Amino acid sequence: MKITLKRSLIGRPKDQIMTVQSLGLKRIGDSREVPNNPAVQGMVEKVKHLLEVSQ
User: Fold this and answer.
1) In which element (H, E) is residue 51 found?
2) pTM of the prediction?
3) Helix locations, the chain, DSSP H
4) Where in the numbering of this chain does the Large ribosomal subunit protein uL30-like ferredoxin-like fold domain appear (predicted)?
5) Residue 55: pLDDT above 90?
6) How many CB atoms lie within 10 A of CB 4?
7) Is beta strand 31-33 parallel, antiparallel or unpaired with respect to 51-54?
8) Quick one: which of 40, 1, 48 has its CA closest to 23?
């Protein structure tokens, strides 16, 4: 599963910032290939409004 950070983290709650960082994303436009497992799916669901997800 490929995820890309599309929205800024400025002004976001700390838990959302930490979730995005734990997915390995730091700045807008960063992409990462992550495993498709329940733990990662839960993190993506929490910050889905900030990400673009492709299979």
Assistant:
1) strand 51-54
2) 0.92
3) 14-22, 38-46
4) 2-50
5) no
6) 15
7) unpaired
8) 40
Burial 18-49 (b: 16+ CB within 10 A, else e): ebbeebebeeeeeeeebeeeeeeeebbeebee
How confident is the model over 9-37, as a mean pLDDT?
98
Coil, strand or helix at 10: coil
Q: Which domain holds residue 13?
A: 2-54
Q: State how many domains the chain has.
A: 1
Cα–Cα distance, 51 to 25 (Å, whole number): 10
Smallest CA-to-CA distance from 35 within 52, 19, 43, 46 is with 43
